Amino acid sequence: MTFIRIDTQQAYEKIKEQIITLELAPGAQLSAQALAESLDMGLTPVEEALKLLAHDELVEITPRHGIYVAAVSVADLEQLSEMRVPLEALCARLAAQRATPDDIVVLEALRQEQASVSSDDSHRLFQIDHKFHQAIARAAHNKYLSRTLDHYFGLSQRLWYLALPRLGFLPTAVADHLALVDAIETGDADAAERVMRSHVQNFYDKVRGILSEEMD
After folding, report:
1. Strand order in 29-30's β-sheet?
2. Residue 80 and residue 54 share a domain
3. Which range of residues forms the domain containing residue 176?
4. Please, which residues have CB within 8 angstroms of residue 44's CB and are 6 or more apart in sequence?
5. Tens digit of each residue's pLDDT (9 = 90 or more) over 44-71
């Protein structure tokens, strides 16, 4: 297993967050030195973090033109949905079959946290949605599936942030989460798979509609 220095991991997480939230816009040119200064970190961990982000397809490193934030398109959304929809559905099925009492406690806590957030707070609901999907992935108890889903989720997030100002449908996802927790708690694998598949597919469909209008 490859060892990643703590400062490199910190730089990676900070830059990734800026890319995902569009603080660093798609196509923007990056300077390792400027990033190091803005993050108040050393140059070496930032350079190593950029290489990791390039591996994750969030950054492009070219010999002749430098370093750029990877571009995004509706075509990317299509390909990501083809991967995430069936994998998330499988994850929910496994979670219903394998979730431990501790897993259920976490899901219930997230459900309660989500219920306490204003329906107008799209950013907060979006963050909780990410935590919710991560918790279900952990409840599936398949580390390879969990890692794969987290990778695709990260790639999807930038596209979702592009559409976020118009994501007025986010509160309706709360009902899906309630149904998912109920299915996982009762061990109803068929229901968990069905609800998750519909939940993720509907999300992609609506984001696709928004982005298609904005990118035309």
Report:
1. 29-30, 66-69, 59-62
2. no
3. 74-215
4. 8
5. 999 999 999 999 889 999 988 899 999 8
Shared domain check, 164 and 64: no
What is the 8-class DSSP label of residue 71?
P
What pLDDT digit, counting tens, does each position of 162-204 carry?
A: 887 777 656 567 788 889 999 999 999 999 999 999 999 988 8
User: Chain-centre distance of CA 164, in angstroms?
Assistant: 13
Report the alpha-carbon angle 84-106-109, nearest 5: 110
Contacts of 63 (CB under 8 A, 6+ apart): none
Is 200 part of any domain? Answer: yes
For residue 156, what is the domain's CATH number? 1.20.120.530
Task: Give the tens place of pLDDT for each residue, 122-134.
Answer: 778 888 888 999 9
d(CA 49, CA 34): 14
